[in-house]
Amino acid sequence: MSEIQTIDSLIAGRAVARPDATAIIDGDRCCSFAALDDHVTAAAGMLTAAGAGAGDRVLIVAENSLVTAVFIFACLRAGAIAVPVNARMTAPELAKVIDHAAPRVVIYTSGCSAEAQALAGDATPQDMGFGAFHMAKCDPKPVDADTDDVAVILYTTGTTGAPKGVMLTHANLMFAGNLSARIREMGQRDRIYGVLPLTHVFGLASVLIASTISGATLQLETRFSPAKLQAALMDGVTIFPGVPQMHALLMRHAADQGTPRLTGSALRYVSSGAAPLDPAWKAKAEAFYGLPLQNGYGMTESTAGVSGTRNAIGDPDTSVGQPFDGVTVRIDAPEGAEAGEVLTRGPHVMKGYFRAPDLTAQTIRDGWLRTGDLGRFDAAGRLHIVGRAKELIIRGGFNVYPPEVEAALNDHADVIQCAVIGARNASGDEDILAFVQCRDPAAFDTVALATFAAARLSGYKRPTRIFPVDSLPAAPTGKILKHKLLDTFADRLTAKEA
Predict the structure, then answer these.
(1) How many structural domains compose the chain?
(2) pLDDT tens digits, residue range 43-56?
(3) Is residue 195 part of a domain?
(4) Any residues with CB less than 8 A from the CB of 171 and at least 6 apart, and which?
(5) Mind telling me which residue stretches traverse the membrane in this protein (predicted)?
(6) How far is CA 397 from the centre of its chain?
(7) Which among 497, 389, 394 has a CA at the least distance from the CA of 449?
(8) Phi/psi of residue 213, each to 5°?
């Protein structure tokens, strides 16, 4: 592999071409490309001294910050594999990932994240001038896995509740980053608002890497705040990729401030991903921004992008657009069916799942990635996602798999069994509804169960509402019929329960 194909070489190239240009804004700190390159080199040296080399995994327990960006690039400069994971995980969730990834080093971005600090335990505190963090050295077991040319492993929980490590190569990420930069026409004068987590493929590929490729400035935000977003939009941000919930909260905040329209902003491109768009809501958002709201489709296994829209403002289209250049999509549908499973092929498809060759073989067949999502094409060749075959819930831009939530609730002594589904709310996000079968619904303590779940699940995975019930709709085999839950308990959905 030539040097230009590696992600870390992007930083070195920018440091030579535009050393004094601002690469990253993190709070009050502005970091030039030259300084970023120096930080990456220093951090890479520290990782090498800690024993991290070719094929070794470096786990980065992180929230968005300069430290996170530096260590993602530093891993690659050291020849290791970056494994960024969300610091808002619970300790048991993180333990599963660490056990599976078998990292050589774990970095905790404790300087920007109280959650990372809590998870760091007795790891060693460090500060190399670009921010505080903790580091722990590990003694990984030998791992029999093909990790040649792998740059990053991103973990998704999967429908079984077991962690799955998606292996993305330098070529995957370069393709996705170039694609994102091109469709947004990113340039050196742009400032991208980076609140989407860098531990997620959207934030990593479409924001961090795309901004570096284009030479744009990336303004990182650790936690989403509509007030901070509004201030950033009025202070030079030109590109804002988000999810429906972020747009909805911003519009509500702005209305509360007496500014129902965004005026006087440099914003020129705004997009919404990770969830379907409602036509009325889309029109409302476009009226607020005065810009078209672009939409797209992708997943971790496809390095984010599969398709995207290029619509004019006011276009009623709510599809996820046409496949990107270089990306092939087809629908695997039974004869006569309108929709079927979405399959995609191209340089965006992952290398495979880490330490899971059988699962990789099931998911990638003859080069085609089987997404598990159901879709159809319209007459204009635009892709419409009509359902999620794997019952995936997308909340606040994060993937939530019902079996994982169900497993946590079922651990409670008073729960007989439960069923978890997602339901769209007025903001365009999804609520997590948990229907819990118990002995005495009238006496069941939903607050105690919510507290129990909070110790086992990240915040975005916790049920929005819990419904104690006598029984759940089931087939003769005992399988819970989730598609009947909303109708069966329709009268309960209007009640204001915890």
Answers:
(1) 3
(2) 999 999 999 999 99
(3) yes
(4) 5, 149, 347
(5) 192-213
(6) 6
(7) 497
(8) -60, -40
